[in-house]
Amino acid sequence: MDRWLRLAPVVGAIMVIGGLTLMILHLRLDLPGYGVHPAEPLCVVLGLALFLSLFARGMQRNAGAYAAHALTMIFFALLLMTLFEIAQNHSPRWDLTRAKANSLSPQAARFLHELENPVHLTVFVPSPEKREADEFMRKFSAETPLLTYDITDPVIDRAATQHVTDDPNVQVNYEETYAIVYDPETADRPRMQREILRKAKAVELTQEALINAVAQALNERKRTLYYLVGHGEPSLDPVEGENARSVSTLRGELQERGFELKPLNAAQTGVVPEDCETLLCIAPRADLAPMERTILQDWLDEGGKAIIMLNPLLSKTGRLDQFGELLMRYGVRAHVDQIALDLQMGNRDANYAMFPIHSINESPLTRGIKQNFNMAWAMPLAPGPTAADYHFEDLIFTSEQTFSVPVPVWFTGKIEPPKTREGYFRHTLAATVSKETGAGHGVKLLVIGDGECVLDGARIGQPQLALIFNALNWMLAGGRQIAIPPVKVANTPANFTPLQLRVVLLVCLVLLPCSLLFGGYGLAMLRRRMR
């Protein structure tokens, strides 16, 4: 019996430490469950009762000493809990990774330090990911008091979605973030009642996307893009019908990011307007007129920027005259062919399909493209005779088991695969061409071999948008766009998640000291009793 009585304080100390640990894990670390279980505080109370049995014998002789010991332990435990709470809410951020993967880039920190006007970020993420998103956003708000943020689930909080989109029917995707500039006259109102002056959207939760969204929202003037029309291009407005072609989704995304898109008929105007910062040419079904080619060529020679998205449907005759000459001048050869994938490579009885999946070259323009996207009508590109005068970089390309078929042959259905392996090779489907002339000036082109992939009916998604907006950032880098290079994490000596850091903090500040305290007093009391 005496043996069990001697073990009771040890069991009690273990129960106290275990119960406190479970309570803190549930309250502070968001472990699965619904708050503190009633058994946890009960375990702590019973554990304290068992531990205090250590002082039962001889209490009358040493009542003062035991009372002092008990108060010391209580105050010590409270001190440790206070330190833990302070460290939780006001802990310094130590990034121990060699590449500083958990810190803001110098470009982002410099931009935030130079903010002069307040801006608010509304981050849409699933409810289970709110804590992780909060950890990410704290790095931004810690740099300046002018940047505030809130995190919400678009499925649960429909009021917040309607507030930032002005339309309750708009579907907000996860990881989308809206940078909002409110009217200063309504700053004292509740957030949902403030008037939005300007806003911009980031489609991914990255430093570069958020910083550029903030920059766009703070910019008081819209950037002007022109959209080439007059050659069978898709409509800028929504169009209904079986064969309808529209880029209204892309237009809406551009407007949400602070761009203004205007139509341009070069044959009527005779010039490219002076306020045109970038020209978009998407999926034309007719060739340029010679006069139009000259107009666009003169504008590009003076440092114009353009995104040209072609497809083989432009010329079923197998010729690409004016567009071909325009691109050839800047080092891009566009073949009026269709890419085909040999499903049974080298087999004459094989099935053939338009190549659905492409490889992405690592580049600032492909940053944020987390998945490959389809190019149903893919025109192959290659460096032209003048490519030596320009910087040609391929962005999207096929695998090695594809071949190209001339468009007239493709429409006849008489596809003959290459008879040797030399006929199968990698085809470039998207490339950039640039030539700097100093001070950020010079021609910049993004050429894509499939213009149909950004149409409404093609279900334009994140990969296509990422490519378009990365290209705009690259072309307009002399303005408000900020390029943040990706962090290459190599040989990371220590990289803790926020949850792991809290566990380390809990162990160092609470569990270890409490264990030493209870264990030390318990051992001391047992040794005194055994004398």
Would you mind describing this structure in some detail?
The chain is an alpha/beta fold. The chain is built from 14 helices and 17 strands. The chain has helices at 2-28, 39-52, 63-90, 106-113, 130-141, 158-165, 207-218, 248-256, 266-269, 290-301, 322-329, 407-412, 462-475, 498-530, and strands at residues 119-124, 147-152, 177-182, 196-202, 223-228, 259-264, 278-282, 305-309, 332-334, 337-342, 352-353, 359-360, 381-383, 391-397, 402-406, 428-438, 441-448. The strands form 4 sheets. An 8-stranded mixed β-sheet has the order 6-5-7-8-17-16-14-12. A 4-stranded mixed β-sheet has the order 2-1-3-4. A 3-stranded antiparallel β-sheet has the order 11-10-15. Helix 1 (2-28) packs antiparallel against helix 14 (498-530), helix 3 packs antiparallel against helix 14 (498-530) and helix 10 (290-301) runs parallel beside helix 11. The chain is elongated. The relative contact order is 0.12.
